Amino acid sequence: MRESAVMQNRSPLLVAAAFGFSILVPLLGYFYLGWLYALIFLVGYLGGFILWLATAQEASWASVRVPYWLTLAAFLLLHKLEENRTAFFEAVSARITGTPVPEMSVGLALALLIVPVGAWLAIPLLFRRDHEFGRFLAWTFFASMGLTEMAHFIMPLLANEPYGYLPGMASVFVLAPLAWWGMWRLNLHRPPGAEA
């Protein structure tokens, strides 16, 4: 009975909007950064979409609140700081893609920050209102942090050099397990009578 109630919250319009969002960010990544980043973004966004569709659980905000905030803090305060300090985009450009890093523009900021991070910052509000789109966004967030960021360990294999550190790699040891915890908590059933 719980599964059918959750599925009713997933109208065709909601599923279409979620799918569109899952494709939008990788397309923006392709347009501004190229095929490698588009594929990497696709893992988190399309992966999150598939995980959202595959689960009928109706997790409460209380069940994911702590992993959400810890994962967000690790992403912004550890991972992005490490990537910026160690010139992640420049390293990928020099060692893997060979394409120049684009100049920061409104479009690039939109693709990398405003759309994804803005959507992820809406998760608490949507979750508290028991909106199913908030659960979808939570899946994209945790999948992006727990699956996509693992690309830091795969990308050195694409470089024509001995396997070694790629900028951003160290903080993934903290970030990914927090996101896995979030996915596990997100997949829990909501206890009867629990608040969103």
Which features does this protein show?
196 residues, mainly alpha
Describe the structure.
By secondary structure, this protein is mostly helical. The protein is 75% helix and 0% strand. It has ten helices and no strands. α2 packs antiparallel against α3 (35-54), α2 (12-33) packs antiparallel against α6 and α8 runs antiparallel to α10. The longest helix has 25 residues, at 61-85. The chain is globular. The protein starts with a helix and ends in a 10-residue tail after the last helix.
Please, how many helices?
Answer: 10
Percent of sequence in beta strands:
under 5%
Main β-sheet: number of strands, strand sense, barrel status? Answer: none
Mean model confidence by pLDDT: 88
Radius of gyration: 17 Å
Q: What are the low-pLDDT stretches, counting only 5+ consecutive residues below 50? A: 1-5
Bulk shape:
globular
Strand segment tally: 0
Instruction: Report the helical percentage.
Output: over 70%
Order of helices and strands: HHHHHHHHHH
What structural category do the secondary elements indicate?
A: mainly alpha
First-last Cα distance: 19 Å
Q: Briefly, what is this?
A:
This protein is an all-alpha fold and 196 residues long. Helices cover 75% and strands 0% of the residues.
Write the layout of secondary structure elements.
Elements: H1 2-8, H2 12-33, H3 35-54, H4 61-85, H5 88-97, H6 106-121, H7 123-128, H8 132-146, H9 151-158, H10 169-186
Helix pairs in contact: 2-3, 2-6, 3-8, 4-10, 8-10
